Amino acid sequence: MKVFRVLFDRTVTFGLTVIVLSAALWSDTVSAQRVRGVVSITSDPSDLPLFIDDRLVGRTPLIDYSLPSGSYLFRITRPETSSWDVLDWQREVTVSAEEATTAHAVFVGPVVVRSDPFGAEVYMNSLLLGTTPIRLANLTPGPYTIALRKSGFQETLQAFIVRDTLQQVFDVTLAIESASVKRSPQSDASTFGDMVTGRHRLSKKLGYATLGLGLLFTGMALNSDRKADQAYSNYLRTADPTRSEGFYQRAASQDSRTSTYAVAAQINFAGAFYFFLSRAFHSR
Asked: 24-28, 146-150, 164-168: which range is least confident on average?
């Protein structure tokens, strides 16, 4: 009985040893047979930390780095000198033995577009990006043209080139659309009839009234524009995102009021011009 137990123990030990050695040999064979490829990653600027599947493997440039074939997530940390809204570069890269895999990471600075007045819609390739002031980040290098549009103002185009990590700021002044008073033959006849019947006194009163309103709306527009400038200055100086958003909304609101007051002032000045012109024709 004792001899049988010894033989049994030795048989079990030998069997386990064979299983372990076979598994090790099989693992080595599979690893040797797994196809590998090479990958080269460069960046501008260079000497940046490079991660593969969140594992730090070195710094750029990484040339002819050997990896088993498959898909990997490559990530390069943004330069320390870049602005806060420049993101890390990352890309899904497929490595194969058929050809070497290469990739180049470029970091570019943001483009800030401001307009006078605020709240102009910004379009790129007919796509609305937002309203001014606007910060365009992570644009690929190359030339761009954007269009700024706002009711009551002429459309303005702004061209720029993205080429490096520096921030670019563009201040665009929108031109007011020319206001004109179109007079039909019926209105001309009505004006002539008013002059004949002695309604020039009413025209005089209306002229002064509309002129006064025009001056009033002009003052309100200047005051609102001053408040918008103050709010926008606070927006640029504030690092707190919550307060910065509040200042931006305040600037946008004041800017909207400025536009409304400016349009009202134009209408009243045009009305004053019309009434005084009517009286001048009557005097002649």
From this structure: 24-28
